[in-house]
Amino acid sequence: MENFDAILREATTKIGQDFFLLPVEGGRTFYRERVYCYELYHQIRAAS
C-alpha cells in the first residue's frame, strides 16, 4: 500500500490546473471531475 501512496502522490503532482477548470461555450469555466479522473488514471498507469 505504501507503494501505491507514492504513485498516487507522484501522479497528482503531474496533473495541471487545466484539468480542473475547463472552458465551455460562452466563456464560463466549470469543474470537470471526469476529465480529472481520466488524467489521474493515465498518470497512475504511466507511473506504475
Q: From the alpha carbons, calculate the radius of gyration and give it in angstroms.
A: 13 Å
Number of helices: 2
Strand segment tally:
2
Low-confidence stretches: none
* SSE class: alpha+beta
The helix/strand order is HEEH
Distance between the termini: 13 Å
Which of globular, elongated, flat, extended, rod-shaped describes the shape? Answer: elongated
Query: How many distinct folded domains?
Result: 1
Strand order of the largest sheet: 1-2
Q: Helical content, roughly?
A: 55-70%
What do the pLDDT scores average to?
Answer: 88
Give the percentage of residues in beta strands: 5-15%
**Mind describing the biggest β-sheet?**
2 strands, antiparallel
Features of the shown structure:
single chain; 48 residues; alpha+beta; two-stranded antiparallel ribbon; 2 helices; 12% strand
Account of the 3D structure:
The chain is of the alpha+beta class. It has one domain. It is 56% helix and 12% strand. The chain is built from two helices and two strands; from the N terminus they run αββα. A two-stranded antiparallel sheet has the order 1-2. A hairpin with a 5-residue loop joins strand 1 and strand 2. Helix 1 crosses helix 2 (33-47).
In short:
This protein is an alpha+beta fold and 48 residues long. The protein has helices spanning 2-13, 33-47; strands spanning 21-23, 29-31.
